[in-house]
Amino acid sequence: MSQSVLSLKNVTIYQEEKTILTEVNLEVKHGEFLYIIGKTGSGKSSLMKTLYADLPLTDGEGHIVDFDLATLKEDDIPFLRRKIGIVFQDFKLLPDRTVNDNMLFVLKATGWTNNVEMQNKIDEVLTKVGMRDFGKKMPHQLSGGEQQRVAIARALLNDPELILADEPTGNLDPQTSAEVLEVLKKINANGKTIIMATHDYALLMKFPSKTLKCEDSKIFEVIQQRTA
Ligand SMILES: Nc1ncnc2c1ncn2[C@@H]1O[C@H](COP(=O)(O)OP(=O)(O)OP(=O)(O)O)[C@@H](O)[C@H]1O
Questions:
Q1: Which of 55, 119, 122, 146 has the fewest CB atoms within 10 Å, measured from its CB?
Q2: Ligand 1 atom 4: the closest Cα is on which residue?
Q3: What is the number of the ligand 1 atom nearest to the C-alpha of 214?
Q4: Given CA atoms 187, 153, 138, 88 in this order, what sign does their dihedral have?
Q5: Where are the domains of the chain?
Q6: Which pLDDT does position 225 carry in this prediction?
Q7: CATH number 3.30.70.260 given to 4-222
């Protein structure tokens, strides 16, 4: 399949009055795995926030999973977020409830009501990330890598077309980062489109894929070179 999941045309991204990225032209096709790299402060998170409508698109054109970012209304944002799975650096699991209840919370908030269907879905996504036996655990009983795998499972609950992962390995050691990347790569191999912001260049070398770099307010494709 080659239809576009995301298209940005001549977009400028601002934080308050400051221009962060300009002349952003980007097209991501169904099934791609795309890295966004760049130094701290170069605008990776601002770009991701624009994609999940945390920052409004005020300048340029943007379409993502059938939503028009330039004309998106406040009321549309929850519906956009159901078609996008978001994974953050700090996992953002609810600390006061089990893994299973974290999942139930999201399903109920997004309109699911049937208990059997909800539990089947939870089991399905936890199995996908290798966490099937951890449903009764509290987040604090899990390692960072396990928490991030649960967060990835949570992002899969509503079968999104696109996963946006903003520094998903930023809090993890190299070995655990590689394991989380393997989970994301497997999900991508099963057909999900993934955009991942990172400054972990070692990971990029280990799992090469199409890469865009944010630098000097611009974003452009870079060709990865193997050093060994
Ligand atoms: N909420 C905000 N209000 C004002 N300025 C912001 C805000 N968030 C980020 N910025 C500024 O926007 C610029 C880009 O930040 P952004 O977080 O997008 O960079 P980044 O590449 O994701 O960095 P990092 O790798 O450190 O997360 C920085 O100069 C930052 O100070």
A1: 119
A2: 15
A3: 21
A4: positive
A5: 4-222
A6: 66
A7: no
